[in-house]
Amino acid sequence: NYGWLVRNIHTNGASIFFICIYLHIGRGLYYGSYMYKETWNIGVILLFLVMATAFVGYVLPWGQMSFWGATVITNLLSAIPYLGDTLVQWIWGGFSVDKATLTRFFAFHFILPFLIAGASIIHLLFLHETGSNNPTGLNSNPDKIPFHPYYSYKDLLGLMIMLFFLIIISLLTPNLLGDPENFTPANPLVTPPHIQPEWYFLFAYAILRSIPNKLGGEMALLASILILMSIPALHTSK
């Protein structure tokens, strides 16, 4: 009963979640939040964990795009010297993406949110130590205002607007952000003409497609996220 609604909210909620994450990163870059190095670096680790959770979750519907997306992405690990093939077979639970892989990805999708929760607490603890950044650049306590009610109501309004759009999308156009190919049950004998990820992973897909060498593409993809950790060192403004 209403399982379809729960599934639609969960599926589209991932897209809304990544919209918030990318806006949060953009705001951090614009206002110089990266100067709080510990908070910023924990945030980058959180980004990795969230991306991993979203990827393993995308495999769970076990449609064509889920199956072949898992096949392509996990095969990238085979480029790791010495350990690559062993690591891929360990993740698969066999010699190809199969039911054992699905079971393992379900376990990862269940366990990773607990790691995300732990990292989020650490993220907030560091934020509490340093204080949150602000667009005005005010650092003195006399110029500050209480969080409640000035910001709590503002955050609550933003949350309500976000939930409104999520419910509207989930009820009226639940497949707007999905791939029609994923409605076809997984078939290892039929490869889809175009294998592409969800929109929030398109930047990674573009990097991998633009570099012919498999290992080079993986290193570039990893660097595209890890470069966020180097931004504090690149900051030259006083």
Automatic annotation (TrEMBL):
A GO MF term: quinol-cytochrome-c reductase activity
Single Gene Ontology BP annotation: mitochondrial electron transport, ubiquinol to cytochrome c
Stretches that traverse the bilayer: 12-30, 42-60, 66-84, 105-126, 156-177, 215-235
Presence of keyword Membrane: yes
The entry's keywords: Electron transport, Heme, Iron, Membrane, Metal-binding, Mitochondrion, Mitochondrion inner membrane, Respiratory chain, Transmembrane, Transmembrane helix, Transport, Ubiquinone
Cofactor (UniProt): heme b
Cofactor binding summary note: Binds 2 heme groups non-covalently.
Domain Cytochrome b/b6 C-terminal region profile, residue spans: 137-238
UniProt membrane topology term: Multi-pass membrane protein
Cytochrome b/b6 N-terminal region profile domain sequence ranges: 1-136
Superkingdom to which the source organism belongs: Eukaryota
Record GO cellular component, one term: mitochondrial inner membrane
Record localization: Mitochondrion inner membrane
Keyword Heme: yes
Listed PANTHER family: CYTOCHROME B
Protein task: Component of the ubiquinol-cytochrome c reductase complex (complex III or cytochrome b-c1 complex) that is part of the mitochondrial respiratory chain. The b-c1 complex mediates electron transfer from ubiquinol to cytochrome c. Contributes to the generation of a proton gradient across the mitochondrial membrane that is then used for ATP synthesis.
UniProt similarity note: Belongs to the cytochrome b family.
Name of this protein: Cytochrome b
Organism: Eurycea spelaea
